Amino acid sequence: MRNKRGWFAVPYVIWMALFVVVPIVIMAVYAVTTADPATGELQLTGSNFTGMGAYLSVFLRSFWLAVVATLVCLLIGYPVSYWMAKEGPRFQRVAMALIMLPMWMNFLLRTYSWMSILENNGLLNQLFRAIGLLDLLGVDHIQMIGTPGAVVLGMVYNYLPFMILPIYSVIVKLDNSLIEAARDLGADGARVFTKVIFPLSLPGILSGVTMVFVPSVSTFAISRLLGGGTQMMLGDLIEQQFLGGAYNPHLGAAISMVMMVIVVLCMVVMNHFGEGEEQAVML
Amino acid sequence: MSKELIRLRDCVMSYGDEVVLDHINLYINDKEFLTLLGPSGCGKTTTLRIIGGFLSPTSGDVLFDGVRINDVPPHRRAVNTVFQRYALFPHLNVFENVAFGLRIPKTERDGRKVKLPEREIHERVMEMLSIVNLKGFERRPVSALSGGQQQRVAIARALVNRPRVLLLDEPLGALDMRLRKDMQNELKRIQQEMEITFIYVTHDQEEALAMSDTVVVMDGGRIQQIGTPEDIYNEPKNAFVADFIGESNIIDGVMRADGVVEIFNRKFQCLDKGFAKDEPVDVVIRPEDVDIVDEAAGQLRGTVTSVTFKGVHYDTIVDFYGFKWLIQTTDFCPVDSRIGIKIDPDGIHVMKKSQYSGMFGDYSSYSEEYEELDVVEDEDEDGEGRDAREGGYEE
Predict the structure, then answer these.
(1) What is the predicted ipTM?
(2) B310-316, long-range: CB within 8 Å, 24+ apart, which pairs?
(3) Are residues B206 and B312 located together in one domain of the fold?
């Protein structure tokens, strides 16, 4: 080995091989085979993929909701990161603690709490009833749970810190003299932002978008708890194939593979777009 | 060197109790190369940032062409800055870095925003790149440039906007010796060619002497002396300036009459006049103004304590009655030899006593004795003073 300290990586390499590479290979095998109902013998087939068209709506919904959740996270997360980065270190520590605080609680607990807030007889509807809003509208309750909005809300709530952290850490490290230089060259506040701060925070945006989009597109707990069974996403579909009534691990593996490929493609395109952006500014 | 362009009137800058600038009064002429020179923490960069608009003085006025500009933000001032560590935009290539200022729409007098046509931007950027010798580099990312090249991009980026004044904050600090010398000549040439006022901040006295029309020596938030490089070197106003600019032996003396100063109880002829009779003074004698002669023929007699070969000359440390002088001479005098010295009247410069008296100008802590004194510096006042100054050179 060229680097003597290469040995330090051995535990991770073993881990990686056992729990990442081997499972992917197993999944790939499952995806292109089907079990003979009689003998249980594996037979090569492409039917897992060709039959997937039936689930197009689930694919579309997953990507659509994940894209919306990612955009909402970006729209909320960027200004907050920017503001935090411009404040003093004491403020930054407190703000960071507040952002991280919900993450110290269990993910399912957080999502269940949203259920009891959004339910037809939940906290919000009770509040609306108490202030007379429901009477005013002449309805018994406002339907919130089981809507796409509730699922997006759940994703934004759970994944927002993953958007804020990378953007914040890029902006906070931005060399202040670059901003001074831009102002010195005649740029007003808006131009300093669009021409210097925003382009230089793109790497943070890209990793934030990745860190929100990937768990969003593959979530199953949020969509099931807050989607009330009507907002089936890819995660739910896959879960059903392995654990649910529609037991068919071969189809589940195939869907997982397709999802993985699409996510990887999205990331590649986005990273390329990010670089392209920089080059477009250069040219 | 014509009319006044910038004036700082009674500028004070303080943060709480800490006074960074203490009543600065300074004017800068149009097309002048002016250098703010001093050790770190002397207030030179603060002064520059006030002119650039990045700081507003606690009290006092900044005038540009006779107009008060205290509250004018940097992007509306006719000055541009070359920053200490260049501050090039890493996401833009060389061309776009230089074009940054040109692409910003300018507001006309009638309030219209006018954008420069792309063709003119291209022409001006290319012209500027050829002035700083960077033709052919326009498509390169700035991260692929060497320190000297980045430096020149920073200069081009500032100058392409045709500012009335260019501010330079230790622009050559990060370059190696040779490159620095080249860039000094380059900067001087650009300044003369483009007929722009340069305000240059540095802690390097050689740089200041080599490039400037006017040098402003600062320390402790105060201006110590303003003058041409020759004035500053030949007629330092106090012990700080004498010590900071070049090498100096600074000795306690008494002015006995016009043109007569007494050092070590011996009278010396000098050219200085206008002091009170028997006034205690600081006497500066530059190391190169001392002639070594036979012991018998000397005005003062001393013992050589160390000799260092410097190429053109020897740095010879001589002990006179417990006070060590630095003498630069082409004659080799071995250690422990007894010598005499002669000083011509124009080699002696007399200064009024100041707060800096007694702090500088003794070479006890010089050369090989330096390390030894370093260890016991707490007991040695002079060693400490010199140490503090040496430390001050580092940013």
Answers:
(1) 0.77
(2) B313/B288, B315/B287, B315/B366, B315/B367, B316/B292
(3) no
Going along chain A from its start, the domains and CATH numbers come out as 56-235+256-282 (1.10.3720.10)
Per-residue pLDDT at A282: 35
The angle at the Cα of A24, spanning A18 to A29, to the nearest 5 degrees, equals 120
Range of the domain at B54: 4-231
B358, B116, B113: which is closest to B240 by C-alpha? B358
User: For residue range B143-185, what is the model confidence (pLDDT) as tens digits?
Assistant: 999 888 998 999 999 999 999 999 999 988 878 888 888 889 8
Interface contact A184-B75, CB threshold 8 A: yes
Distance CA A232, CA A242 (A): 15
Residue with tokens 């020596």: B217
Which residue in B74, B88, B90 is closest to A184 by CB distance?
Answer: B74
Q: Which of A178, A184, A187 sits opposite B81 (nearest CB)?
A: A184
Residues B184 and B297 in one domain: no
Q: Quick check: B124 pLDDT over 80?
A: yes
The answer to pTM > 0.90 is no
pLDDT (tens digit, 9 = 90+) per residue, A10-40?
999 999 999 999 999 999 999 999 887 778 7
Q: What angle do CA B184, B194, B89 make, to 5 degrees?
A: 70
Residue in chain B lying closest to A274 (CA): B91
Beta strands in B51-117 (DSSP E): 59-64, 67-68, 79-82, 106-107, 113-114
